[in-house]
Amino acid sequence: MRPFTYTRAKDPAAATQALAGNPTARFLAGGTNLIDLMKEDVERPTALVDITNLSLAEIKPITAGASKGGLSIGGLGKNTEAANHPLVRQHYPLLSQAILAGASGQIRNMATNGGNLLQRTRCPYFYEVSMPCNKRAPGSGCGALEGINRLHAIFGWSEKCVAVYPSDMAIALAALDAVVRVRTASGQERSIPFADFHRLPGNTPEQDTNLAHGELITAIDLPQNRFADRSYYLKVRDRASYAFALLSVAAALEVSETGNRIVQARIAMGGVAHKPWRALTAEKMLIGQEATPANFKRAADAEMAAAQPLEHNKFKVELGNRSIVLALQMALNGGKA
Amino acid sequence: MQDKNKLTGTPVSRIDGIAKVTGKAAYSTDYPVKNLAYAVLFKSTIAAGTIRSIDTAAAEKAPGVLAIITHQNAPKLNVDGGIRGGALLQSPEIEFHGQHIGLVVAETFEQARHAAHLISVTYDRKEPKADFEKLMKNASVPKDKDKADAKRGDVKAALREAEIKVEEVYETPIEHHHPLEPHATIAEWTGDRVTLYNSSQIVNGAQTAAAKTLNIKPEQVRIVTPYIGGGFGSKGGQWANLVLTAVAARQVNRPVKLALTRQQMVNSVGLRQRNHQKVSLAATKDGKLTALAHETTTHGAIKNEFIEPCGDCSKIMYDTPNSLITYRIVPMNVILPTYTRGPGKSTGSFALESAMDELAHKLKMDPIELRLKNEPERDPSNGKPWSSRTTVQCLQVGAKAFGWDRRKPEPGQNQQGNYLIGYGVSCGTYPAHQRPTSAIVKLKRTGNDVMATVELAAADLGTGTYTILAQTAADALGLPLNQVKVVIGDSDLPPAAGAVGSVGASSYANAVNDACQKITDELLARSGKQFFARPTASQLMLSEKLTDFQTRIDAKPLESAEEYSAHSFNANFAEVAVNRFTGMVRVNRFLAVTGAGTILNPKTARSQIIGGNIWGIGMALTEESVVDPRWGNFVTRSFADYHVPANLDIGAMEAIFIREDDQKANRMGIKGIGEVGIVGVAAAVANAIFNATGKRIRELPITPDKLL
Description:
A: Uridine Diphospho-n-acetylenolpyruvylglucosamine Reductase, domain 2, four-stranded antiparallel sheet, 13 helices, globular, B: alpha+beta, Aldehyde Oxidoreductase, domain 4, 3 domains, FAD-bd_PCMH (chain A), FAD binding (chain A)
């Protein structure tokens, strides 16, 4: 850890202004990722602007605009509160499950909703400063491309970076077509559809998201949906809790009231790409089909056919296939086996 | 035998429990030493080669920096003084990734850490030897004579002529001890004597190694280690960090604290080595073993060997006329491997007990029956009679308690929803030894109250040493528990064995008991009276109106113990549920039945056994330290990457102890439980997974990808 200044922002305007003039200043919210990375000498901010005093923690129904009828979750609310909020549990159980599948109780008590979206990859080559990593040190190479890449990407990676994005919460948000609301450095409001929030690595893996420096996540908007009775977050990992996903699937189905026909399907995968991976091929195939294991399998086959595994993560193709089928089955059964 | 009027054998809560949960128990870095300076290590970023230059100019100018010590200015130390793993800053040579190459001492920890970032190092890099799969082809006969080929009969011929055989290779990864308390030291010099507050499983061993390495006399070193936050072998031998703290303190002429970070633990304090084990079993059609070969290939460090004895269980567990135990080793650019809980036995039993399960399956025989058929009457490795052997009882008691009869013999036949259920069994063993230990017992009478203090340089890893010694002394002196004080963890006390190799309880409790018997004898002699029934020391202090009395004993093991083969034994039972889609495994239930002689405290003993079991479950399912062969670095440097089991991984744990009174092993019949708790566990889990799924996984850990 290197010396830095520490200040507390009193309101959103002061917060964004504090960052505007200093490209190496960072917001500090829960600190559950940033502080660890500073201790590892991966992140080296010269200034931390504490934003935990800002009033951006509220969870409230959306009464106007494009997401009317949905739910707005404050950017600085704690993960624990979001997961346990009655409106989240009732209308967006997928989000609740995903949050609770991540980290540990202690970490969720500290971590904020906006901060969760900005978690950096857990790639070990990113974490150890003596290793090459284009995300940490652009141009230094990718240690994982031909290294120990069991945990790494099978979709959308580049020669520059094969890291995966670690959040569970964000996988559910991707499936739910959430919208990230942001306050820009100049005080404007803008909305980023979830699919456009995170980036694929391409030639600039150092950029995880499309958030500009100094932009502040004020809220995450969840549009209204009919998935509450048929959704499931499946997380496959090396131990039962406190482990990042080998692979995860957030699945949600809306089926016709008469019979078993799929009206809408949402599938997002974690642990497979540099961003939450929407299984759009599988989703399209399912619409209008009977909700049967055979159709789930066909959709999973089609989605996973495009996977490009690395040396140590070939298992993720088969695991992804099985997990899509299982998650859809669990969603269809209302979360029961 | 356990007596109803005695404290030993009863589930007394640990006497240091309140001090620990209230934070009053001082661990190594908790000592309020005044005027402390802080040291931070910096480490090599290559695994093999030579340091070309170290530029410390910027760091030296950083605020608060008091000293920077590297091989260029470190004092001459004795590299053969008993400190394990090198890294003593005596040369520019690099033998493993993350080798200590220097330390910064500053007024504050933050200043030291910051200055360490400002140091730049250049190297002449060599290609590291870090790919075990490739290196193992060049493995050769070890220097260690104990690891020479041990042959009995003709294994080759027996395998050739076998009616049934199993010949398989079992792989176990590098593991780390990762005690909750990372290694940490405070060094404080007073004149030419240094006090080292430092977690040490072997108090006198740490003292000797530190003194020899620093080129001073043992009496110039005092080790203080009243509480240890776990060690599992990594605090048995001592490592460079201990001595470098003393060097730093002398250099800056004030006390210095050095605590390792979790990430530094992977290349500072040893590891459990990677083992490639081939087990060959030959048997008759009715399940009688005719040959057992256990051939281990492993790695050491570049300059030094250490081999955990993977073939030990195979030497003694089963009756066979033909036996072969071998070891081969190859140097590798990693830190020196060292003793790790159940050294050799935990990893070796994974291979042996998996192979026995494979043989039972081939024979279509219950795996318990197969083991009962091959029960040896004497120790097959040396022909000695057992002091006692409880394998059969452990299996029979366990089978009944676990409901083994509910197991479906054919694998893959027990499906419940998305899960496949399986049962597995295994056996384990660990030798029981008592080591020489001295102890002082002091009695002090105030009015009608007698207070006893027992003193010895024992160590308590957190397992309950304080409590069992208080129980032992209370019984032997005729005092209630709260009138006994136990003082341990200080090299100024009478020398004692280490809390290693399951010798702690037997060595310490026998010494304390002997000391209490001796003080009673001395008080009796002093009284000059004849008694109908032997009075207690406490009664004699009162009747003789003494205020202070003390004695010291140098307790030794029974000479006759050498005539017997003395071991703890266990049988492990696991029930697993395997998700048939994702391959995730949950151990629903685990039962360990242990025959370990006298159990001084069933409560702390249970904790120790299930602690070993849980690590064994980690070994089976989650734990692996992964080396990138290109650079020789560990990519699993934190608890986010190195997966020890979490609460949610652990189902119902049960421990049963077989009652036995084995006075051939030692006077109190104590055989030790620290190590045996992990032995056989991984095999029981792997065997249960086979029973659940029909998949035999011979490579640990059994992560979901291996079960797809």
